[in-house]
Amino acid sequence: MTVPLLDLKPQYQALKTELDEAMLKVAASQMFILGPAVKELEEKVATYCGAKHGIGLSSGTDALLIALMAYGIGPGDEVVTSSYTFFATGGTIARTGAQPVFLDIDPETCNLRVDLLRDFLAKDCERRAGGFYNRETGGRVRALMPVHLYGQSADMDPIVTLARERGLPVIEDAAQAIGAEYLSGRRVGGIGDVGCLSFFPTKNLGAFGDAGMCVTNDDALAAKLRMLRVHGMEPKYYHALVGGNFRLDEIQAAVLLVKLRHLENWHAARQQNAAYYDRAFKVVGVTARVVTPTARPGHRHVYNQYVIRVPDRDRLRAYLAECGVGSEVYYPVPLHMQQCFAYLGYRPEDCPESARAARETLALPIYPELKEEQLQYVVDSIAAFYAGA
Questions:
Q1: pTM above 0.85, yes or no
Q2: Do residue 37 and residue 143 come from a single domain?
């Protein structure tokens, strides 16, 4: 049996007629840039996330970048974020000329540890000169950027409280977590000041290429984001700001509108697959070796990834490949140890849980169209590996 990490073909075949018609409609209209599909998608995604505005963008990376630009973040500034996440989180901060401040993660959720954030803000920073500054570096702390990793919300209430006390915006990296819910059913992206979404094809809501969006409840911020995505232009050919070409493609918006109608069913299927894995690993008796994902009580985990923690991770992954089971390491190098961030002076022991996660985490197939026998085959293959270890 073969179980790929992800297979998008069944999803396309199920929706082929709708998707093809949507794309042909755009072709017939010849309205390719910021047309009616983009506007409709912006409204529907914003509502879905519990936000007032949606600003369609060219990618999730550009959503993070434009959010930072909208707050005027640049050289001399610092943005606090997680050390264990996709590169775009830290990379976009660096692209503005600001410096990322990497903090360690909770080993159960792989999301930012609030206690470390609280300690950093209380012990390592101070108010002066009309701002909030890092005592050691002298950099001005300008924003907090929590990440909702793998499809589960970070602990947002204390993060937002800490930010409000210091006048800092909260930029949510919700690239992997559209539809994930925090306490009281609040959906990520609409909790902080601005939420950044990715519609990369591997996401729960995936386009046919790169696409992204910012969502916000702030009218002025939304207006600024819309200007920045078209080179800071408003009205046409008048530029109050220097922005970029960050527009969402009309064809991608049309595709996403079709898929959005099915998103809740896909979330449910991913949750069912995760529950099957949880039960099956207990039945085969490998829970002493295989640590399954923690879903926090009161949260809704949408399982963009189902990530286990295991000893001998690399050997297990090689064995699974021999068995025809796809897997992936998200992520093998924490951001604080990436070569391009060596100038920041971090040591591996500065974020020990991130370093440990890089050695132990392994993502298993979790996409909605998986069959029960495929899920069981994955579990049986892992059990066989540890039985022979």
A1: yes
A2: yes
